[in-house]
Amino acid sequence: MGWIIAIIVGGIIGWIASMIMGRDASMGIFWNIVVGLIGALLGGWIGSLIGVGSTLTEFSIPGLLMSLVGAIVLLGIANLIQRGRVR
Asked: Which residue windows are transmembrane per the record (predicted)?
């Protein structure tokens, strides 16, 4: 059951991050889920470095925010690679 919730939350986080970064039109639901899940891992890692809770071990608002930050960072890196600049 945890994986189903992770996929749903990852999709929502990825969708919000893609809207913030202006990439919503170019991404489908699959890529929103992928970005959300990888963003959660990246955000959890960044959060562990600065002492904010991780979504990998507990479900919390700071963990969700760090997942969103991780997804935004991931999309920013993708923008740099694809276009040579951040939007």
From this structure: 6-22, 29-53, 59-81
